[in-house]
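Researcher: Go.
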Amino acid sequence: MTTGSRFRVTVNDKYIDFTGVTTVNFILPKSQSIVKESAQGFPWTGEIRKYYSRESKFNSFTLPGGYFNNEWTSYWTYWVHEYGHVIGIPHLGGSRWAYSFQPYDLMGSQDIARDISGWSRFAVTKWMEDEWVYCKEKSSISSELIYLSPINDGSNATKLAVIPLNKDLTLILESRRVDTFASMRPKMEAIQYLQGAYPLFAANPIRDGVFAYVYDSRLGHNEEYLSLVPGNRNPILIAGESISFEGVTVKVLEVGLRDKVLITRSD
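Model: Structure:
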């Protein structure tokens, strides 16, 4: 945390009630050129914990720099991404290279993605109740018909399918929608950025359907622990489309209020 940041908190302490506040998000003038990308502090970095207001101790902060003036970025997705780390969600892939899953999860790329994967909501943050998750090992499946409700709706229905394939890999299915968080209508500069960094996503943007991906338990923070099912296709399946991976075939029969999905073991 910079001396200037500490000064701003001190000055504003008599005007702002910081009760219950643990994260401080600073905004710099867009004309500044000192902070090129961003600066942030987390509970485990230690430095931020030295600073506090009369009402509260802080455990994290963010400081978006000039990079976030680009049209494909936004402050709020940056804030959510960094706060995701504060509550324990690992970074997907590295910060200096792009890989194909990142545009589909805000913890991979806050520049493009507007959603957090069902896996993070269930296995990491525990935001999902157990009864919202279909879970069955590959060895126990012959043919299963399931219904998935959109991951962002307010129902208590099944929202996630988790299929452990072996001791390392798990196939995951969730119902995605082009809603307020997922939709994106980029301008030309953003389209050019997408085509360069994420060509598969640029060619196959978010649509209504079933998102299929793989979790690898051997990988973690700053690694590609979530990945798309191999194949040069849109990873969000619509009615009539299917994928096969490690002896499991998933076919989407219907996309609607709930998505109807057939899961079969093929080996």
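Model: Residues 149 and 159 are 5 Å apart (CA to CA).
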